[in-house]
Please model this.
Amino acid sequence: MLLKHTPEEITERKALMINPAKTCQPIGAMYAALGIKGCLPHSHGSQGCCAYHRSTLTRHYKEPVSAATSSFTEGASVFGGQANLLQAINNIFTVYEPEVIAVHTTCLSETIGDDLPQIFDKAIKEKKVPEGKTVLGAPTPSYVGSHVTGFSNMVKAMAGLAVKSGKKNGKVNIIPGWVEPSDMEEIKRLAAMVGVKITMFPDTAGVLNGPLTGEYKMFPDGGTPIEDIKASGDAIGTLALGEWCSADAARLLDTKCKVPCSVLDMPFGLQATDRFVDALRKVCGTTVPDEVAAERGQLVDLISDMHQYFYHKKVAIFGDPDQLIAMTEFLVSIDMCPVHIVTGTPGKKFETRIREITAGMPFEVNVKAAGDMFLLHQWIKNDPVDVLIGNSYGKYIARDEDIPLVRWGFPILDRQGHQYFPTVGYKGGIRMLEKILGVLLDRLDRDNPEEKFELVY
Amino acid sequence: MLLKHTPEEITERKALMINPAKTCQPIGAMYAALGIKGCLPHSHGSQGCCAYHRSTLTRHYKEPVSAATSSFTEGASVFGGQANLLQAINNIFTVYEPEVIAVHTTCLSETIGDDLPQIFDKAIKEKKVPEGKTVLGAPTPSYVGSHVTGFSNMVKAMAGLAVKSGKKNGKVNIIPGWVEPSDMEEIKRLAAMVGVKITMFPDTAGVLNGPLTGEYKMFPDGGTPIEDIKASGDAIGTLALGEWCSADAARLLDTKCKVPCSVLDMPFGLQATDRFVDALRKVCGTTVPDEVAAERGQLVDLISDMHQYFYHKKVAIFGDPDQLIAMTEFLVSIDMCPVHIVTGTPGKKFETRIREITAGMPFEVNVKAAGDMFLLHQWIKNDPVDVLIGNSYGKYIARDEDIPLVRWGFPILDRQGHQYFPTVGYKGGIRMLEKILGVLLDRLDRDNPEEKFELVY
Amino acid sequence: MGKAQKLVQWSPTDIKEKLLEKYPPKVARKRAKQILINEALENSTPEITANVRTIPGIITMRGCTYAGCKGVIMGPTSDIVNLVHGPIGCSFYAWLTRRNQTSASGEKNENFINYCMSTDMQDSDIIFGGEKKLAAAIQEAYDLFHPKAIAIFATCPVGLIGDDIHAVARKMKEKFGDCNVFAFSCEGYKGVSQSAGHHIANNQVFTHLVGKSETEKTDKYKINLLGEYNIGGDGFEIDRVLKKCGITNIATFSGNSTYDQFASANQADLSCVMCHRSINYVADMLETKYGIPWIKINFIGAEATAKSLRKIAAYFGDQELIDTVEKVIAEEMPAVEAACKDVLPRTTGKTAMIFVGGSRAHHYQELFNEMGMKTISAGYEFGHRDDYEGRHVIPNLKVDADSRNIEEIEVEPHPELYKPRKTPEEIQALESAGFEFKDYGGIIPDMEKDTFIVDDLNQYEAEKLVELMKPDLFCAGIKEKFSIQKLGIPMKQLHSYDSGGPYAGFVGAVNFYKEIDRLVNSRVWSYMKAPWQENPELSATYVWE
Amino acid sequence: MGKAQKLVQWSPTDIKEKLLEKYPPKVARKRAKQILINEALENSTPEITANVRTIPGIITMRGCTYAGCKGVIMGPTSDIVNLVHGPIGCSFYAWLTRRNQTSASGEKNENFINYCMSTDMQDSDIIFGGEKKLAAAIQEAYDLFHPKAIAIFATCPVGLIGDDIHAVARKMKEKFGDCNVFAFSCEGYKGVSQSAGHHIANNQVFTHLVGKSETEKTDKYKINLLGEYNIGGDGFEIDRVLKKCGITNIATFSGNSTYDQFASANQADLSCVMCHRSINYVADMLETKYGIPWIKINFIGAEATAKSLRKIAAYFGDQELIDTVEKVIAEEMPAVEAACKDVLPRTTGKTAMIFVGGSRAHHYQELFNEMGMKTISAGYEFGHRDDYEGRHVIPNLKVDADSRNIEEIEVEPHPELYKPRKTPEEIQALESAGFEFKDYGGIIPDMEKDTFIVDDLNQYEAEKLVELMKPDLFCAGIKEKFSIQKLGIPMKQLHSYDSGGPYAGFVGAVNFYKEIDRLVNSRVWSYMKAPWQENPELSATYVWE
Model:
């Protein structure tokens, strides 16, 4: 057994987290920043943070991930990191020539109390920021929230760049939240099909699923142009996908630039996608074309065709709040039973939403925010499931308990596909169902006695 | 063991086929005919043929498949089926009101020697074919070739409808061959991206992957309009994908309407897709946009990123000639070793092509046309493989030999996805690789000793 | 969709009219005789036309004679090599596509179920004849597998080109000595449906297999189970129950069967007929030749299962057996009742339509009744008049051209093996006590007034029926499944059970309750319209947060 | 791409100039001292600047002190609970992301490698201090797992807010009695690279674990293996070879290690140092405190492995051992030579660059040499001058501010446990026979003239070097892998080995030959351009069939 010291009996833990279902803020900020065109993320802290975040994102995407660091030494930790950051800004613009530097803090610089805006002012005064280039910063203390919080904070910092010219540009801002490059692509495709002009930020499509051409672009072609982000203050409204990932930025645009917003669930599964598409057409008064209805109908068709195979199958799922809320709704809607649901990200609101979604279902639900995978594993030992859905760390539980794992979430370190094929939207729903069906049917093929072995499903 | 009577020792068989890797012509004709808009396929023979073909296509697509039959009785078998077919044509146009009836023969009507053109003439004379409606027919003797031959014959019959107005219409005919609706969709998408106006026939997209909407359309929205097929005689050229599936139709267009043609491999994998895209742009003198290059680059990127996992892994693959030729080239191109290759369809040309593609590879290749899965299984027993690629019948070998099966080909009766996600084109190549990688890595996760269990691949 | 307005706004006569209105006159006349509005008369049953030709061009559910012979009857036997003589297709399509299950795992048990064997006829064979190739194929099969028997099946061209498969079979049988080789002239064009194939198959089984076993069966209560094909494991469940009751099932025709079971069938003391259509004549032959009486039973439905067990016990008339049977029923029913009680609130009042096979359209009404569901329309794919109206019509069934060419074999008491199981007096006694031998009343009397009984339902009529009568569930086969579901009506396959089953016996009843509950109460059918389709109008302004 | 024009058109000085030209002057001056064009002088080695601060904003390969301490040194020990005190990230990122393998399966073996434990510090802990939470977490870990030892690791904020983790550790250790609790002040901001973390870790291991075991090791030839981390199973292969030779490996620092191995390290008779950088000072301390001499060995490369085995044998000077070692080498080499012979035609003449760690950039040149490949540029991520120039520079290394705050522990001979393994005469004898104790010459002397040696290579310089020198292979870590491969140059990770390994010992050499053959000869790199990019021109007319 890989996790042989995990007891079935559950004891309360107040201080010790084991096998986390979250990581810290800065990596979220780094991922978000990569969704700005020509942006170099910068980690203001010890160089280890930056190394770790780059490594994790690189393993998840199998793509180069450039980011700089202030390389704090003991001295900097005592006297503050201003000198390091100023030097870094100068070196970065000189050597790498990005359009944008997106700085996020760390537990170290936050504990010291470095003041980013003040340091940026100094950098600008000292002409370390070339004409027309942008520096933005987000406070991302590692000891608050989770990687999701860091993502949200950086996206909020982007919204902070928005300006209001007074003249609406007829576009809708879409804040997609922490989804894959393929998902961002799919969201853009859906919006285009519905005939809605959008500004989406961040946008990692084309940044973290790039081609191999023999040429290395430190700043790939993808990402949201900084001008578009600044112009988001002139949008007719903002659709924020995911309360945890995107709401703060949307609300800032509202208070700062009077751009009204609406916070929707991430478009995973049938209903959430329905609400997203319906919101799109209502916002712009467009008509949803038949192609969209056809894609939707294919998903519904697949659900009806294969319903018998996932009906009342039990699922354990872990990941981030916005994703889990939408996916749990999807699983419930197709008569699956998500019985164990864990996010490492804190927030009682999460448990409330899950309780609402699973209310009246014919099964008991264990749900925990600020939980960990050690607890999830214990729940599974006490009430086994048919499928486990989550990131690659789930494979240790999957092997020990002989449960198939559907890889979904962050990070996925041991499989490919997530960067190329969306799980948002109707097509994404079909892909998720294909995967879930696949592992369930694989088990039938493996476990059925010979006389029950089936050719046709 | 499911196939416990299959001996490792291989003995020659001259008369007995066991576990075929093919079926008979009519089902191919029926599938092709479903790719014509508003067409009802008709099986001229005993009603069992039609029932079997409809059942198989329905299990493969989980979609309604309508087709009629001449319902031969003993009498008809003795006196000929003309009366039945005339009655059928009348009933079909009266009751179901299709635009087109596509008749294919069977071993029965071929043995009797029914003459379709003569019967059609009679039907028209007797006003059983309403104004503006079309009846076409293809001879598909079950005792010649295979289901692939039947497909080809029906497509050739479509080409037979082509007329030449003398005025070129600036379009390119694409004959996609026996690929999935999703593949046909992808071929159209690629052609559109390259800026080429095409007429593709047949086209089962939207016919056999339809939505669930509460409405049953006996004749779905998809399919190639019969007018377009007739106008294919005015095209500037024809790209036929697959020698076995599409060449005859293309060459008929050439001889009949002087539409020049070029027979390409089906666009499975990197090189075959390259040749297809390159042909498209050359035919019409268009420029291939960067989006296509980007998709291509993503496939190359994935190949390079995960090369170590499929490098020199052995594959056994069975299916139809055109598909196998392209896929074998793909497997070889990424340093996999397709060591056992079987098609049930006859044709020495097949073995020659495979020998060419695998020439100089560091592995022995067993290849057979007009072979069967019994032989394939014996080959595998003598020289085991890491992956088996083929239709659902492969699962019996897969379970007995504990080899992962990647479902690809026809029929797939026990999984979903093939009708929604293409395996042609660059994106299709990524999907195939994702699947092959998936099963290979699943085995590592299952079989590695604990000390070698890996989080990251 | 539909679901909203449940009540049927159409009178039966209106409906029948609508079913026929679009047909050409000739077709309409013919179909009119096969569509019956049930009158539910006291003691006469209305007549229906059945077992007649399908109309060319009309999209039928039916298959062919080969399918009935190879696919249905011979397919489920594990230790006989089935070799199809013909082009590859016929053999390919009958390869593992029915869910007749087989418990033949383990080293010593032969199991050829997973193999598909064919002579893969080529044009040269059509031109010059295929007998040589057939003989060679039989030889290769023998050399590879050394089976105890090889069955040859003819496909359409075989009859036309005049291959004498029976001669080839005889020749090879003699040559081998230790392998029984026999053939079936089940060309697809024979008869009007699978039914002809059942008949051809059963005749050959009776001729070539039954009575061929030396080993004597000494069990106390020995029966044959005729017309049970172990789809989804039905036969496993029935065998479980029989075993629990102490009843020995000598031979099932033909679910999960073996060569030796067929060969010993003559040793049973009672034949129990499940699927009346496919096999009642074998029951007659078994009685005539070996003196084995037969009764109609039905293990579909918990009540029906209990009733059938009691009937078997009554036949043997042995108190010990009668008590065991009651004990078993008492043990099994609570779980059934609990499951039924659970679903009833959600299933009561729902309506179903059933169009399958020979007897299932009748048998499954039992299960629906137990769930409080009404079968508002039903019919057979390949039934005969006696399956609709009851066996009393058999004497005056007219034999048409299509039936005439299906061999009827004449049997007479076997010189040694014939032995009446009951004296005329015993029979008499049982009958006067209300016990019914070889009795089957058909489907019509069991259905309510104004229900629709349709023979050989076709796709067009099916769609119309669903549109007009709006059932909550439709039962048929794979070809029908998705056109019905596109209409938003859940569809249950009662040939293959989708991937479900067993549905027979007590455990089967529970499975069925749950499955139907899943189908008729699934939320999936409420997702068919997108929000922008349900409320297409655009409110002037989108309501922001 | 690139592959076309292989020759390097640039002179070394040109290249160095190009590497520096874009830097701001201050940066250029500093980097100039860390980029060395090798002169390959006879008996003096050029000086390089190393182990100095990374320049803020310059994208480095380096990690932090915590990574070196928790990730590298303590990570591989299976039966010590590693508890990270800090925000969740540091613990999360060090969770199973190095490929240090562990053979601790089976019921009785404790194995905490797959667990990630943290105090998950929240802002309240930052404000009010985290000692209470740390104590509680240690208690919870103890109650759940009852481990023999718990190690505490400090992350950046801990030092700043002044949590005294050592005091907490002492307190809990006393409280438990049966569990050794100790802490590491390995805050990420300390030092200039992972190297500082190695030092902090090793000091604590030496202080809290070494010499703590009661059980006496009685084997004949006992060694310690220092600086081997069992990445990809290297240690497994080395242990296999040692065992075959009859040599007992008492303790590996720290691949596949256990608490008891560390505790018994003082009982070995020889310390063998693999990774000079991460651990040479421990070898010194072991000698000073327990009298165990040490030698530098290298198991990367088949020849190097043979040489190292012979050196160990020579140290023990026992003919029996010397013979066994020769026998083992004779047994192992044929397979190695065969594999090498197979790849040589495809690898000879290819060039490589290596930028990793402390010693690997040096060791792996052995393997490339065996394959006929030349290393044209190399450097360390966190090496010191002695790793470049050799140990003779150690006395005059200047201790800067960053090194100064890494604790140096003073050790002296242990009152009971100190026991010189060899008499001064024996040592003398060995040395005069050419045997070298504690000797390491560094990477520079082993590299050819005009090769590039670059310390703390950064992303910008890496890309430039590849552009200008066009190597056939580049070796570094995961962060570098894909930017290099985008250029069409295959990239091999020499931290994690991608998913490969072992590469140490004899079996490892064979693995490495094959892996490099795969990389430098893969056709993938020829697919980067589409046909329409290679020949964009459109022929007037497309050539139809």
Remarks:
- The longest strand of chain D covers residues 221-228.
